[in-house]
Design brief:
The protein has four helices and six strands. By secondary structure, it is of the alpha+beta class. The strands form two sheets. Strands 1-2-3 form a three-stranded antiparallel β-sheet. A three-stranded mixed β-sheet has the order 4-5-6. The longest helix is centred in the middle third of the chain and has 23 residues.
């Protein structure tokens, strides 16, 4: 398996400085305001959420196909909660939400496979130290 690379460059102080996050064809600015306020640019939590949502969507799609229920579409979103704690800031929770179009599957089986995908995706595995919730919804076309 290939090793994936990304880099970040930060210049200046925490509140007045700025940086860039870069990988593949992605190159975005980030700053104190984009992380702790509503400033323009990205932030580490947003990137973590994108990675988690992407990993979960692929894991669920793979699980469904393996069990004989290939998905038409799996849409996932990860809401990453960054909170102020005594020692600074901490990511304490991620809410995974998904809507999937899967023909001929029962709600019960879909929920079972969604939970298994949440528990088994590599990003969820890496984030076991925090609470990860799941709201999975089966949709019809």
């Amino acid at each position: 398996m290939p090793t994936r690379n990304a880099q970040a460059i930060w210049e200046g102080t925490l509140q007045e400085g700025s940086g860039r996050v870069q990988f593949a064809h992605f190159d975005q600015p980030y700053s104190f305001k984009s992380r702790f306020e509503d400033g323009e640019g990205t932030n580490p939590e947003q990137l973590l959420g994108a990675a988690h949502a992407g990993c979960f969507a692929m894991a669920l799609s793979a699980r469904l196909a393996r069990e004989g229920f290939p998905a038409v579409r799996v849409q996932a979103q990860a809401k990453v909660h960054l909170n102020k704690v005594e020692t600074g800031f901490a990511i304490q929770k991620i809410d995974l939400e998904c809507a999937a179009e899967v023909p001929n599957i029962s709600e019960e089986k879909f929920q079972e496979f969604a939970l298994a995908a949440k528990e088994g995706c590599p990003v969820s595995q890496a984030l076991k130290a925090i609470e990860i919730t799941l709201y999975a919804r089966l949709v019809t076309p």
